[in-house]
Design goal:
The complex is a heterodimer.
Chain A: H1 4-37, H2 43-55, H3 58-69, H4 74-83, H5 91-115, H6 119-127, H7 132-161, H8 164-170, H9 180-189, H10 194-225
Chain B: E1 2-10, E2 15-23, E3 27-31, H1 38-46, E4 53-58, E5 61-62, E6 73-76, H2 88-98, H3 107-114, H4 129-142, E7 147-151, H5 159-176, E8 180-184, H6 187-193, E9 196-201, E10 204-210, H7 211-214, E11 219-226, E12 229-232, E13 235-238, E14 249-253
Parallel strand pairs in B: 3-8, 3-9, 6-7, 7-8
Antiparallel strand pairs in B: 1-2, 1-4, 4-5, 9-10, 11-12, 11-14, 12-13
Helix pairs in contact in B: 2-4, 3-4, 4-5
Classes of the chains: A mainly alpha, B alpha/beta.
């Protein structure tokens, strides 16, 4: 049904989106906690910066990543010299680009999930002898979990579909960085490639639908569990 | 045996300046109109609210320097705030497991006095209001508190449940003997449960003393002279709602 190249694009896409979601979710939970619970100077500015990839053209995000994480950039240069690690034009780079673009969506969902936990429940836990880490682990995270899982699913779907930032920062190297959207684009450049493009598009659509339905189901489950 | 409290805390409409001493055995009622600052006082004693200055001494032990989670102060509100993702039993065990020193308040005793043994495997959302409050009381007791704060624990319940839960509170007061601070604006509850009363208005303590002195029960006795008709204080009144037989005693209290 799928040619070896098409399989390769699908599996690479799933791996790239998987890593993007994993790291993105950890960062999203961290920042969501910080923004939801603490007041500090510059909070609004940080909030805006973290949402920037949502409103910037993805190509601009990719270009910004090149400037910072490219071999000649401040962080990329250090990584290359100190650890021998390069990100631009690598699968890890593709994951970084996809993750950065999906991050604001995960941040918003995580913040909502954490913010929805009734503070009175935390006060009750506190009066019963639970310290801050204890409360986070036994009360807040379990109650926020369905919403956080939904954040992961939405993030995964967004990372899977990311095009502009990935092609700018990681290029379109088959087997390395040519994820599904890039493979579809490449197929359309070739005469007679519409068949391949269509097949890949249907795969992408199927993955996206499964993701959205799973996300909705998780949110509904979370609402029922947290009732009263 | 004394509970000594001095709280200063700015609120919206006025600032709280509460100073009182209460006997450390028995139930002390914080009594006053809504908005007087009674709940704010409890929150400050529990360590759950920012204060300008706070002193909470229980039998010479200073509690105000401790963070809320180490004060061992049980707190039950109008709403039970049971953890929805845990069964009743896990809710009860939450404080129990975090009480690392001795546990003078026994598991079976609490379950028995509050009659919640049959609820252990239920989910909080399947309980009635009265059952939830009893579980909340159990949960607080099992955390081995040295002081129990009850903030209008029955005001969200209907009259029948209210009476039932008040009965349970009286029972646990008898059985466990720990100091209790009880906030209410109901004179009836104050008289029923309170040994000592601290009257709070507009953020200040305006009176404190034994409940019987500060809130004497006012009552008139009368008699049913015919169905739907009573004689009270020399007057005859039509009361079609009273269907007791002639000769029955009627008591009106407020």
């Amino acid at each position: 049904m799928l040619s070896p190249e098409e399989w390769q694009a699908l599996l690479l896409s799933l791996r790239v989106a998987g890593w993007a979601t994993f790291w993105g979710l950890i960062a999203a939970i961290g920042f969501a906690w910080l923004l939801a619970r603490h007041r500090f100077p510059g909070r609004i500015l940080l909030d805006a910066l973290l949402h920037a990839p949502l409103v910037l053209p993805p190509v601009v995000t990719g270009f910004a990543l090149l400037l910072i994480f490219g071999v000649e950039g401040p962080v990329g240069g250090w990584l290359d010299r100190a650890l021998g690690v390069r990100l631009a034009f690598t699968p890890a780079g593709a994951a970084l680009a996809a993750g950065v673009c999906a991050f604001p969506l995960m941040l918003r969902a995580a913040r909502q999930a954490i913010g929805a936990v009734d503070p009175a429940l935390e006060d009750a836990a506190r009066a019963l002898g639970a310290g801050p880490v204890d409360r986070a682990v036994t009360i807040v995270l379990p109650l926020a979990a369905p919403g956080l899982l939904a954040a992961a699913v939405v993030g995964f779907a967004a990372a899977l579909g990311e095009f502009g930032a990935v092609i700018t920062f990681a290029a379109s190297i088959p087997g390395e960085t040519q994820t599904l959207p890039l493979a579809i684009y490449a197929a359309l450049q070739v005469p007679g490639g519409e068949g391949a493009a269509l097949r890949l598009s249907l795969i992408a659509l199927a993955v996206a639908l499964v993701g959205l339905i799973a996300s909705e189901a998780l949110l509904a489950f979370g609402r029922r569990r947290a009732a009263r | 045996m004394t509970l000594s409290v001095a709280i200063r805390r700015p609120l919206d409409a006025f600032s709280l300046d509460i100073v009182f001493d209460a006997p450390a055995d028995g139930l002390t009622v914080l009594f006053g109109p809504s908005g007087a600052g009674k709940s704010a006082t409890l929150a400050a004693i529990a360590g759950l609210a920012p204060t300008s200055s706070a002193r909470v001494d229980l039998n010479g032990v200073s509690l105000d320097a401790l963070p809320a989670e180490r004060r061992r102060i049980g707190f039950v509100h109008q709403q039970a705030h049971l953890f929805p993702h845990m069964s009743v039993e896990r809710n009860l065990r939450y404080g129990w497991m975090r009480a690392t020193e001795t546990r003078p308040i026994a598991w079976d005793a609490v379950i028995g006095v509050l009659g919640i043994g049959h609820l252990l495997h239920r989910a909080p959302r399947d309980l009635s209001g009265g059952e939830r409050q009893r579980v909340a009381l159990g949960r607080a007791l099992l955390s081995q508190p040295r002081l129990l704060l009850l903030d209008e624990p029955v005001s969200a319940l209907d009259a029948a449940r209210r009476d039932e839960v008040l009965g349970f509170i009286a029972a646990l007061k008898e059985r466990f003997g720990l100091p209790i601070l009880y906030v209410t604006h109901s004179a009836e509850e104050a008289r029923r449960l309170g040994d000592w009363l601290v009257r709070i208005e507009q953020g200040r303590v305006v009176a404190q003393g034994p409940t019987a002195e500060l809130l004497p029960a006012r009552e008139l006795a009368g008699e049913v002279i015919a169905p739907g008709r009573i004689r009270v204080d020399g007057r005859d009144l039509d009361m079609p709602g009273i269907d007791a037989p002639a000769g029955s005693i009627v008591r009106i209290s407020w």
